[in-house]
Amino acid sequence: MNSHDMPDVQSSHDARDIAIDQVGIKAIRHPMTFLDDGREHATVAECQLTVGLPADKKGTHMSRFVALLNEGPLILSIAGLSDWTRAMIERLEAQSGEAHFTFPYFVAKDAPVSGQGAMMDYDVTLIGRVEHGRPHIGLKLVIPVTSLCPCSKEISAYGAHNQRSHITVETEVSDPALSLRELIAAVEAEGSCPLWGLLKRPDEKWITEYAFDNPKFVEDMVRDVANALEGYPGINGFSIGVENFESIHNHSAWAVIHRPGR
Ligand SMILES: Nc1nc2c(ncn2[C@@H]2O[C@H](COP(=O)(O)OP(=O)(O)OP(=O)(O)O)[C@@H](O)[C@H]2O)c(=O)[nH]1
């Protein structure tokens, strides 16, 4: 029995008269090449692909999302995301849709003193959205840094507690030529110290002293990142969340700043 002889339940009429904002698939992993700064980055994306479904339609065409992912290699860039999302919506015979791709983005970084190179990974989500025919590109970055507590430094005879922190930035992209690598570098500079994959002893001494000379509360970091992103070319509005995985507590310190886009 081929599919033409089978009942097409998804395409049947639905009498409840309730439109669905987003329906589709999530948590599907797929090999992907991400283009940024003129370079190809091999990675694996976790995808969430959805479309809007009109009130009178029973179901969407679920299999078509997967078919689209598998049509040739998945090669994406910030600039190419809108076209991919449009193609998805067309394929699903929908009017609106969203495509989320979450993946580790690897940057080759040289240690600050020894210069030894190693990969460092950042979690990135690219979000393509088409609504009322208009494309929008969203971005979510999770950037790990070191933070060192200014209070602890001030009150202690020696040392200061420090920890790994996550700076999460969500923003709308207004210029598809935006460089992800440069944006990550601009944000990570606002921690007490950036992270590297590989550090030899001279590097470890350097980063220990660098963080000690740049103590920051969670409030300092969220404000400094907001300052760095205010007027940053190629983005429109942002939300910044900073989480310090406190080494002196079994809980996190957390701060958020929202700046709506124009
Ligand atoms: N809409 C919908 N589909 C589901 C659901 N659960 C499973 N399916 C999918 O139903 C799919 C088959 O339906 P379609 O994608 O419409 O397949 P088809 O009708 O053969 O293909 P088209 O003619 O392209 O629509 C399978 O890929 C399943 O993943 C669900 O809750 N809703």
TrEMBL record:
Belongs to the GTP cyclohydrolase IV family. Pathway: Cofactor biosynthesis; 7,8-dihydroneopterin triphosphate biosynthesis; 7,8-dihydroneopterin triphosphate from GTP: step 1/1. It is an enzyme of class 3 (hydrolase). Converts GTP to 7,8-dihydroneopterin triphosphate. InterPro entries: GTP_cyclohydrolase_FolE2, GTP_cyclohydrolase_FolE2/MptA. Coiled coil: none annotated. Keywords: Hydrolase. It holds the Pfam family GCHY-1. This is GTP cyclohydrolase FolE2. It comes from Guyparkeria halophila. The record marks C149 as: May be catalytically important. Its EC number is 3.5.4.16. It catalyses: GTP + H2O = 7,8-dihydroneopterin 3'-triphosphate + formate + H(+). One of its GO terms (molecular function) is GTP cyclohydrolase I activity. GO terms for biological process: tetrahydrofolate biosynthetic process.
